[in-house]
Specification:
The complex is a heterotrimer of chains A (272), B (597) and C (162). Chain B has 23 helices and 19 strands. Chain B is α/β, with parallel strands linked by helices. In chain B, the strands form six sheets. In chain B, strands 12-11-15-13-14 form a five-stranded mixed β-sheet. In chain B, strands 2-1-3-4 form a four-stranded mixed β-sheet, with helices on one face. In chain B, strands 9-8-7-10 form a four-stranded parallel β-sheet, with helices on both faces. In chain B, 58% of the residues are buried. Chain C is 48% helix and 11% strand. Chain C is elongated. The chains are: A alpha+beta (272), B alpha/beta (597), C alpha+beta (162). Chains B and C meet through helix 1, strand 11, strand 15 and helix 16 of B and helix 2, helix 4 and helix 5 of C.
Chain lengths: 272, 597, 162
């Protein structure tokens, strides 16, 4: 993001220097190559990376070159930690050729995905017509949906089976008992592969139906009853403004700050 | 009269040929005759024509007589002649083609001459389930020495100086690994044995786990002392039932003898080991997948760094070594690093166990000093390619390795020499193929295996193997196109560079090495729609050459679909419509009259 | 419903041989597989409960490892070795033969529940290649013809004690 200030995770703090594409950049011990690159607006393509759910290292699109003692090593930028004097190349003929081939394979998996199509164009690639595309499929198995669901604590979906049979599914491919209809999986998916339908106060996802509830402020449907209850239970005292939709919640928070209510909270002065 | 001991091979292969019944019959007869003979069941060591090609094997000491292809009916004669009268039963002796005669003892077989047993030192010499046998052959002497007379740092130093490198395929310096783990912060450390031997055609680890379980336990205990670990895990693949059983028994025996558990050998060192049975996944041989499997998760790997020496089982520093690596540890401690490092080649110290299988006269398990040439292993120890066939290639490194052709037979077998030529030594699988093997189909075979074993987590491996396999299947079935070889090479490079773990990274190797050394075969399939080896059915037409056919009718007998017809002593005819290209007729024809058209 | 309840009780009994720790998930599932010859849904749900593991993760384990089956296996499990030595000795022809006689692809079970087919990558009897194992009984040096005869024996109930 442009203009973001230095906020590296200083685990143990030591600041060091690495070289990316011939230029030197500051980095903190514990950071990954991708974080340093992003902070400095250097493009490394990714699919399975999310700020909230980092380190899957499964899409392999972020692979870059490490140059050491005359040898070239290929490592995933999102998971490989920085070290003093590291020499990284994010662009090269080999990297472009590999990215093209990899994106071609992704395109065969999810032929309708705009994201893949556009990434392929960035690396001057064309669809690989030699092989058959999976026209019914949209998922690229990045696993973000599963990690989001696990992070939330519901764990209603998982990657199941293995190899080319691997897919994202619910237990026994049945409507999942654990699903609360929060839509986190739907929101985090980079290729719009998860079907979620909100209609007439009902949400349908993973073959399960939910009743939507209305925002206490604006009256719009915004989440399911189960998701609301889940968050209330999970956050307990920490749960604030859970009866509001995201927009209204943001507005309420802004109002609090505008009115200095946060100061009263910090200094333990009762609201009068 | 000197006490006699009869060693009956009871490894999985020989058991499959009925050796257990032979063991029981021998025991029964010896008992009724009241002979002072101990009948000991165990894995054959050298001579272990591995499995069954010459099995069941029975060896008798101290006469030093080895019988092969023993049947139940032979037991009486063996007892009569050899046990009671010290006579040799000639017809049960191995016919050594290289020496041109029957050879009495396995120690004198040509097969045995260039071998040196370190990891396999006890296999075939001790009972599978008897700790006393192990102790009688210096068992646990190294552990005693380590625990009573050495410091952890000294032990690590000794292993480092020996030059021992991991025997599971990775070849990482073992001493280094132990030191990194010992130095990693944290009080809880683990020692793990990787017994997930998954390469098809490899059974080195299985033989050690079944036939000499204590050597693995002793090695692990020495390491635990050297890195201050208290717990160890033995991960054994699901399919190795006998190994799991023998290991569990060995652990119980070691504990009751004070070699494992609390206060080992009277010291204040505690170390206990648990067996964990795999769930049937080749990928669990990858160390991070193996860790996840022990933790009760699916066997999907994690990116490295961090390495297990820093962040391993349940996040703690962990040493993971292969079965064969562990088997070397007690010997190195006992005989010293100097002795060990005098064996082998420059960067590859010590010996390596190979499972030598395929189109070779002496299939089996061999252990040789590294630096020996492929030619020596295949043609001297292995006895060459049988039945008038021609050597074509040797595959090493399993699904991660590659094929090397005749021109490379003088290469040294070690960690670095094969790598430089596009293959790798790997965990020790060595498969010899002859002119009847199609190198395109062989590449397809490995990719099929890998596509089923890929965990599927990362796209380069999962989708890359799928794509390469689809192209290879097309080529094998006559649908190969111009540009396919280049596409295979480019996809291969991407998969090698971008995969998350070793399985994916090395998956393209069999394909790329076969293209490199046997490109003309690929081209014949693609451009001429022809399989030179006569294997790919859609691209093979078998014909009987009327000039050569003597009309003996041998082929008719072995044809499973009655596709051959003809009068006696007249040239026979093969019906293309019926032919299923099984090649039985080609194999049988005494005059090579059946040709690939 | 009753059947499920029974399975749940049996599964719990099996699971309780181990402490309720995640690391025993693989071993518990293997014991259940051995008992039922497959993993019933009700059993998996019970195990999930016992170990406090999300049920979908148990399902993920069940579908990841080859040791497990979600559907009951046949009475006779035919394992054709497709290790490298067996492969170059003709294991593909054996598989073709089984396909022709029993209509089975690897992983499938016949409709009458008599036979299941699996391929395994190396039984370790390479000198007898090509090899097949039917319910722990080894058959080596096979040809499509000899295999056909052996299977006929099982179908006719002749191999009752095999």
């Amino acid at each position: 993001m442009p203009g973001r200030c230095y906020r590296g995770r200083l685990k143990g703090g030591k600041v060091l220097e690495i070289s990316i594409n011939g230029k030197l950049y500051a980095a903190a011990a514990g950071e990954k190559i991708l974080e340093v690159a992003r902070r400095n607006k250097i493009l490394i393509p990714t699919l399975c990376h999310s700020e909230a759910l980092p380190g899957s290292a499964s899409c392999r699109l972020c692979v870059v070159e490490l140059h050491k003692e005359g040898e070239v090593q290929f490592v995933a930028a999102c998971s490989h930690p920085v070290s003093e004097g590291m020499v990284v190349q994010t662009e090269s003929q080999a990297l472009s050729a590999n990215r093209r081939r990899l994106l071609q394979l992704y395109q065969l998996m999810a032929p309708d995905s705009s994201r893949i199509k556009n990434l392929l164009a960035v690396y001057q690639g064309e669809p690989l017509t030699r092989l058959t595309a999976d026209t019914d499929n949209k998922c690229i198995l990045c696993g973000l949906c599963v990690r989001a669901c696990d992070q939330l604590g519901t764990s209603a979906i998982s990657t199941v089976f293995r190899g080319t049979h691997k897919k994202i599914d619910t237990a026994f491919a049945q409507p999942p008992v654990a699903c609360i209809g929060c839509g986190a999986c739907y929101n985090v998916c980079p290729v719009d592969a998860i079907a979620m339908e909100d209609q007439l106060g009902q949400r349908r996802i993973w073959q399960k139906s939910f009743e939507l509830v209305r925002c206490a402020s604006c009256g719009e449907y915004y989440t399911t009853r189960e998701a609301q209850a889940f968050l209330q239970h999970k956050l307990g005292d920490q749960g604030v403004d859970l009866e509001l939709c995201d927009c209204c919640k943001a507005r309420r928070t802004a109002e609090k700050y505008r009115d200095g209510l946060h100061l009263l909270e910090i200094y333990n002065i009762p609201q009068g | 009269m000197l006490k006699k001991t009869v060693y009956v091979c009871c490894g999985t292969g020989c058991l499959a040929s009925g050796s257990h019944a032979i063991y029981q019959a021998l025991q029964a007869q010896v008992k009724t005759l009241g002979l002072a003979v101990e009948v000991v069941p165990q894995i054959k060591k050298t001579g272990c024509h591995g499995l069954c090609q010459k099995g069941p094997l029975v060896h008798i000491a101290p006469q030093d007589v080895t019988y092969i292809h023993v049947k139940l009916e032979d037991v009486e004669e063996i007892v009569e002649q050899t046990l009671l009268q010290d006579q040799v039963v000639e017809r049960l002796l191995y016919v050594d083609r290289q020496q041109g005669k029957r050879v009495v003892s396995k120690h004198d077989w040509t097969f045995a001459q260039k071998q040196l047993k370190i990891a396999l030192r006890n296999c075939g010499e001790i009972s599978q389930d008897c700790i006393e046998d192990y102790i009688a052959r210096d068992g646990y002497a190294a552990l005693r020495q380590a625990v009573t007379a050495m410091t952890p740092a000294q032990i690590r130093e000794e292993i480092t100086c020996s030059g021992l490198r991991g025997r599971g395929g990775g070849g990482f310096a073992t001493g280094n690994k132990w030191s990194l783990t010992a130095q990693a912060p944290g009080d809880i450390k683990y020692v793990i044995c990787n017994g997930d031997e998954g390469d098809p055609g490899a059974f080195m680890d299985r033989s050690i786990l079944e036939g000499d379980p204590h050597t693995v336990l002793e090695g692990m205990a020495i390491c635990a002392f050297a890195i201050r670990a208290k717990r160890g895990f033995l991960y054994i693949r699901d399919e190795y039932s006998l190994a799991v059983e023998n290991m569990k028994k060995a652990i119980a025996d070691a504990e009751s003898h004070g070699m494992l558990g609390q206060q080992i050998l009277g010291s204040d060192f505690d170390f206990s080991v648990e067996v964990v049975r795999g769930g049937g996944a080749f990928v669990c041989g990858e160390e991070t997948s193996l860790l996840h499997s022990i933790e009760g998760q699916t066997g999907e790997p994690s990116p490295k760094p961090p390495f297990p020496s820093d962040h391993g089982l349940w996040g703690q520093p962990t040493v993971i070594n292969n079965v064969e690596t562990w088997a070397n540890i007690p010997v190195i401690i006992q005989r010293g690093a100097a002795w060990f490092s005098a064996i082998g080649s420059d960067g590859s110290k010590g010996t390596k166990v190979f499972s030598l299988v395929g189109k070779i006269a002496n299939t089996g398990l061999v252990e040789v000093p590294m630096g020996i040439t492929l030619r020596e292993v295949i043609f001297e120890i292995g006895g060459g390619v049988p039945r008038r066939r021609k050597f074509k290639a040797v595959q090493t490194g399993g699904p991660s390795g590659g094929c090397l052709p005749e021109a490379k037979l003088d290469l040294q077998v070690d960690f670095d020499s094969l790598l430089a030529e596009g293959s790798m030594m790997g965990s020790g699988g060595m498969i010899v193929v002859d002119d009847r093997t199609c190198m395109v189909e062989f590449a397809r075979y490995y990719l099929t295996f890998l596509s089923e074993e890929s965990c599927g987590k990362c796209a380069p491996c999962r989708e890359g193997i799928k794509a390469m396999l689809a192209i290879l299947v097309d080529i094998c079935q006559g649908r190969g196109r111009e540009g396919d070889i280049q596409l295979l090479e480019e996809l291969g490079k991407m998969v090698q560079a971008n995969s998350l773990c070793g399985l994916g990274k090395t998956a393209p190797n069999p394909v790329l090495s076969n293209i490199h050394y046997f490109r003309e075969e690929f081209e014949a399939h693609i451009h001429e729609k022809r399989c030179p080896a006569g294997v790919c059915k859609e691209l093979t037409v078998l014909q009987i050459d009327p000039q050569l056919c003597t009309g003996c009718g041998a082929c008719v007998k072995v044809c499973p679909v009655d596709a051959i017809a003809g009068e006696q002593r007249q040239p026979h005819v093969l019906d293309q419509g019926k032919c299923i290209k099984c090649n039985n007729c080609r194999d049988r024809c005494p005059v090579d009259a059946i040709v690939v058209g | 419903m009753n059947k499920d309840l029974q399975i749940q009780q049996e599964a719990e009994y099996i699971a309780r041989h181990y402490a309720p720790e995640r690391r025993f998930l693989l071993a518990i599932l293997q014991d259940i597989q051995r008992h039922y010859k497959y993993l019933p849904e009700a059993a998996m749900e019970k195990v999930a409960e016992y170990l406090s593991v999300p049920v979908v993760k148990v399902y993920a384990m069940a579908t990841f490892y080859k040791a497990f089956s979600l559907t009951p296996k046949g009475k006779y499990i035919i394992k054709v070795c497709d290790g490298t030595a067996c492969h170059i000795a003709g294991s593909m022809d054996l598989l073709a033969e089984i396909k022709a006689i029993l209509g089975l692809e690897p992983g499938e079970t016949t409709a009458d529940g008599l036979f299941s087919l699996e391929t395994v990558a190396c039984i370790g009897a390479c000198g007898l290649a090509p090899v097949a194992v039917i319910n722990e009984q080894y058959y080596g040096n096979l040809t499509p013809l000899t295999l056909r005869k052996i299977l006929a024996g099982y179908q006719g109930g002749v191999a009752k004690n095999a």
